[in-house]
Design a protein that fits this description.
The complex is a heterodimer of chains A (112) and B (112). Chain A has 112 residues and is mostly beta strands. Helices cover 0% and strands 55% of the residues of chain A. Chain A is built from no helices and eleven strands. Chain A is globular, with a radius of gyration of 13 Å. The termini of chain A are far apart. In chain B, 0% of the residues lie in helices and 54% in strands. In chain B, strands 2, 4, 5, 9, 10 and 11 form a six-stranded mixed sheet that branches. Chain B has a five-stranded antiparallel sheet with strand order 1-3-8-7-6, with no helix packed on it. Chain B is globular. The chains are: A mainly beta (112), B mainly beta (112). Chains A and B meet through strand 4, strand 5, strand 9 and strand 10 of A and strand 5 and strand 10 of B.
């Protein structure tokens, strides 16, 4: 099992551009979580899905952020348009129905 | 709304001594608590957990203590080793919701 796979590992983009972060879940896990890590706020929950359905997106900072889960094994987090304050490390994590999370290695996003 | 708080952004201890990492929470509905450890350029990894029906859980050098009345938990590492140097995140969830909230993290440095 390769674990939770995120891509890209690093992304540098210009302000105003669209950014798409990708996450592949562990097979058999049916909960998916997107987190953002910043120095000031630590790990913030952005959105989570259960069985492909978004359960809580109250952490999504603005309408510029959107997340999808087109199938049981894959999710995307899109920022359009991106801004410098979006620069952070974005993690996704998956878990079985009830149980511990497994995190991906993260995507470090820099918006210049 | 920071439901889980780690008020010490950093901690430095000498090798062989005890490291104590603290965490406070505000939501009395939380019934399961976890500690995650994060090395640079990697995702957080699970370290140890405790259910609200217990007040202590021990795993080798790591012990987590829970004080429900104070809404406080702590992680003790004895003896501390240089390889323990990492960022430690406290997390809490309402178990049936599987929706985990993290603290901001504490950076532990263990000096040889």
């Amino acid at each position: 099992d390769a674990g939770v796979i995120q891509s890209p590992r690093h992304e540098v983009t210009e302000m105003g551009q669209e950014v798409t972060l990708r996450c592949k879940l562990i097979s058999g896990h049916n909960s998916l979580f997107w987190y953002r890590q910043t120095m000031m706020r630590g790990l913030e929950l952005l959105i989570y899905f259960n069985n492909n359905v978004p359960i809580d997106d109250s952490g999504m900072p603005e309408d510029r952020f959107s997340a999808k889960m087109p199938n049981a094994s894959f999710s995307t987090l899109k920022i359009q348009p991106s801004e410098p304050r979006d620069s952070a490390v974005y993690f996704c994590a998956s878990s079985p129905s009830l149980g511990g999370y497994t995190f991906g290695s993260g995507t470090r996003l820099t918006v210049v | 709304d920071q439901q889980v708080k780690q008020n010490s952004p950093s901690l430095s201890v000498q090798e062989g001594r005890i490291s104590i990492l603290n965490c406070d929470y505000t939501n009395s509905m939380f019934d399961y608590f976890l500690w995650y450890k994060k090395y640079p350029a990697e995702g957080p990894t699970f370290l140890i957990s405790i259910s609200s029906i217990k007040d202590k859980n021990e795993d080798g050098r790591f012990t987590v203590f829970l004080n429900k009345s104070a809404k406080h938990l702590s992680l003790h590492i004895v003896p501390s080793q240089p390889g323990d140097s990492a960022v430690y995140f406290c997390a809490a969830l309402i178990y049936n919701n599987n929706d985990m909230r993290f603290g901001a993290g504490t950076r532990l440095t263990v000096k040889p």
